[in-house]
Amino acid sequence: MATTPDAASQGQGAISALLQEDRRYPPSSEFTAQANAGDAGIYERAKADPEAFWAEQAQNLDWMEPYKTVLEWDVPWAKWFVGGKLNASVNCVDRHTKTWRKNKAAIIWEGEPGDSRVMTFGDLYREVNQFAAALQKLGVKNGDRVAIYMGMIPELVVAMLACARLGAPHTVVFGGFSPESLRDRIQDCEAKILITADGGWRRGGKVPLKDNADKAVVECPTIQHVVVVNRTDDARHVPMHAPRDVWWHRLMDDAKHAIVEPEALDSEHPLYILYTSGTTGKPKGMLHTTAGYLCGTMTTSKYVFDLKDDDVYFCTADIGWVTGHSYIVYGPLANGATCVMYEGSPDYPDKDRFWDIVEKYRCTILYTAPTAIRSFMRWGNEFPEKHDLSSLRLLGSVGEPINPEAWVWYREHIGADRTPVVDTWWQTETGHILITPLPGLTTAKPGSATIPFPGIEADVVDEQGNSVPVGGGYLVLKKPWPGMARTIWGDPDRYVNQYWSRFEGWYFTGDGAKRDEDGYLWLLGRVDDVLNVAGHRIGTMEVESALVSHPSVAEAAVVGITHEIKGQAIAAFCTLRAGNRPGDEAADELKRHVAAKIGPIARPDKIFFTAELPKTRSAKIMRRLLRDIGEGRVIGDTTTLADPTVLAEIRSQYEEKEG
Ligand code: WT7
Hints:
Distance between the termini: 31 Å
Number of strands: 30
Shape: globular
Bound molecules: 5'-O-[(S)-butoxy(hydroxy)phosphoryl]adenosine
Radius of gyration: 24 Å
Number of helices: 21
Strand order of the largest sheet: 5-4-17-16-18-19-20
């Protein structure tokens, strides 16, 4: 491999074309002239003394006991705000109920069938307390893990905050995951309670959450109770196994008017575990702790989205992913902001569902993903044009690199060429946004996540770790930041190896990036074996393990191929065991199998059957060659291949299929 990552060579055409065009967007528009206005010195201040900057931000939290030291840093082990005590549910809920915000909307929820609900901070306070009391009654104590497997309903937020109140780390498992994925996560963190729903609405159908949960917990001996929210009124069809299963509404009735004293938790007390894909088969349980994470999400929400009390902020992410944790729940609520939360998919019942919601609630901020933006572009301008979107004053993007065309379309057609667009780079591991423009302060360039957030030190380095002033390389973070994951649950060695071993003393992001003459960063995608499909991180190994678990498959290799909407799509190369016939039927069967094993997000787009996989003489599968084939590119250097004829055979099959 050359000194620049694989991905660095791709997409560079578009970038340099754009830079030549130099279509820059000034920091302020009429609408946002006041954004961050009081804080013009923020970059310089933070640069001069990052720890002092974060300490200044930590003053915006409610502390039960003040901390003594801002940062203890023993690479790679960070402790922020050492010695302090606080509670995340107090910071997100209680403190607002002591102000005029008590009767302000915290969550404006829209269900897929069109039902809706508004919860004030006062409502949230009552329900969080009630449910915390219910959890206590089920035996949940400080330190116990609680798994949550639900759709996007307000009870999900209530459940998370109730856990936080008790000091019981939650692990939210995306409702689109399979029973097996749920089981693996519960087993890994040894959760005591599972909270789910009878079902969830998705494109007019019901996702069988309780059925899936039942299948999962059969193999989860640590689970003592399953709490079930009645969302789809499917009570008659949902078998409840007493005494294990209990209805949410019964528990809430029993805990009417309950008030639960929030635990005074250490700054470094675990707040949650969230699983994310890595390069090996097993998902990593990223552990986030209390004070630093809250400080990071609260501060970035405030500056990046320029959150004000009259904002109606709509983040379209699912709370099953980190974006929802940080930018629907903890960050915005800590700021006392009003969040719109939507249950269903953007194209049901029509392709203007998001625009309908923006118009209905007069949303002012929209935070969504490039994959969605590219879908909107393809569906056509008539959908946003049917709606009055003039309430929007700020647009955000997250999850994958946004191509300049999509950026410009987003600004012109959704933002009426008037709103700033913030392209925000971060990861499950980082906890909060690290690279982003600040509205009112940073000139934007379409397709670039621009510059690090104040207090963050990012760099682009070559293979040896030398800083690359202008050009492509690996993105690293050279200083700790408050919201960084502290470890991988139960596997500190893997944490060290995965993130802190590639470059001594620095955090390795796994992303390639290019820095231009202005010091702006252009993210280029993953440089490891992790795919980013429609903004979802999926490990090639996870999909390969799922494929080989099918009785017909002997060996499988999975690669990401460029996809117009999803950014990347999954292509799988499989060799079959003797006696199995390749063909469309077998391919469909394997696609179904992977979707059942992991979840529909991991379903391969293309499956190729081959007598053998191309391997080096040391038996390493040559993914680069497979990517070339999957994308129909001319095949590169094959000199290290053990048997070059293997490749010709796969390629002819590919051409047959595409031709
Ligand atoms: C990976 C992290 C961050 C929350 C959602 C995804 C890619 C994320 C951007 C962006 C280019 C981006 C990176 C990163 N990514 N945001 N604005 N520009 N790439 O969280 O599942 O942990 O994935 O998503 O490749 O490493 P995640």
